[in-house]
Amino acid sequence: MKKDKQILSVKNLNISFTQYYKGLRAKRVNPIKSLSVTINAGEIMAVIGASGSGKSLLAHAILGILPNNATCGGDIIYCGEPLTEERKIQLRGKEISFIPQSVNYLDPLMRVSEQVKIGLPKKEADKKQKELFLRYGLKEKDGALYPFQLSGGMLRRVLFATSVRDNIKLVIADEPTPGIHPEALSAMLNQLRTFADDGAAVMLITHDIVSALTVCDRVTVLKDGQTIETTMAENFSLDGRNLKHEYSRALWNALPQNSFSIYKEV
Ligand SMILES: Nc1ncnc2c1ncn2[C@@H]1O[C@H](COP(=O)(O)OP(=O)(O)OP(=O)(O)O)[C@@H](O)[C@H]1O
Ligand code: NI
């Protein structure tokens, strides 16, 4: 696949919810106001922002899994064409791969090895699933277990294994690494890098900016459902003087390892 080709373009995304309370009184909330992000083939775009800034909603809008009471505006273009609700259903789990934030996305009643096999070509599903378990430090016998029998860290690895498929063009990873020990963390980040190097566009939603910077190309900063800035990863360095927006600098300088740097307005 040609690199630098735009795979995903989200323009002026707007998401609101109608909430009913006290019987019939309706209230609208509008957590995503004007959010834009583009990702090219071969690129990892980290998406960062405080809790509640709209990162997961962005992911869910692209995948077509927003709750029913959500209203969505703006444009989502995938490979040059509007990503309609039908196309979302058609493509997710195939060309568009999702690593969800919550392990609740796993089926509680299905053995985890079976869940990793979903979407794999039948003939090689067994072999591939075992390879993926090995790659992410899961034991072969763990495959026979149900989600409730695995630890949080193990479930994250299972989720990651479910995302590795051939012919992926877009990967959306929503906070894929919390509670993961350092070795598995780097295996997962390397896997995201491999997806990108093989030509996919990768969206890495995370709170862990420092780990993300080891693999990502660009960073989009969100605040209150709006894009604050998109910048090259290398601008997250020193005291953040190359970042355009005050808020991005504040996020960067709030990290414990940066707290001693002298922050001056530039
Ligand atoms: N179904 C819903 N109805 C109403 N508001 C919602 C709904 N889902 C999410 N929100 C609101 O939208 C905002 C953004 O939520 P979102 O889950 O995208 O945040 P996030 O950036 O992923 O946060 P975190 O880092 O904690 O995962 C939040 O204020 C949340 O309360
Ligand atoms: Ni989230």
TrEMBL record:
Q: Which InterPro entries match?
A: AAA+_ATPase (IPR003593), ABC_Ni/Peptide_Import (IPR050388), ABC_transporter-like_ATP-bd (IPR003439), ABC_transporter-like_CS (IPR017871), P-loop_NTPase (IPR027417)
Pull one GO CC term from this UniProt entry.
Answer: plasma membrane
Q: What's the EC number here?
A: 7.2.2.11
Q: Give the chief site where it resides.
A: membrane
Provide any one GO MF term from the record: ATP binding
Q: Name the enzyme group at the top EC level.
A: translocase
Q: Where in the cell is it found?
A: Cell membrane
User: Domain ABC transporter: where?
Assistant: 10-249
Q: Which domain of life is it from?
A: Bacteria
Going by the UniProt record, its keywords in alphabetical order are: ATP-binding, Cell membrane, Ion transport, Membrane, Nickel, Nickel transport, Nucleotide-binding, Translocase, Transport
Q: How does it sit in the membrane?
A: Peripheral membrane protein
Q: Which reaction does this enzyme catalyse, per its entry?
A: Ni(2+)(out) + ATP + H2O = Ni(2+)(in) + ADP + phosphate + H(+)
Q: How does it assemble?
A: The complex is composed of two ATP-binding proteins (NikD and NikE), two transmembrane proteins (NikB and NikC) and a solute-binding protein (NikA).
Q: What is the similarity comment for this entry?
A: Belongs to the ABC transporter superfamily.
Q: What is this protein called?
A: Nickel import system ATP-binding protein NikD
- What organism is recorded for this protein? Maledivibacter halophilus
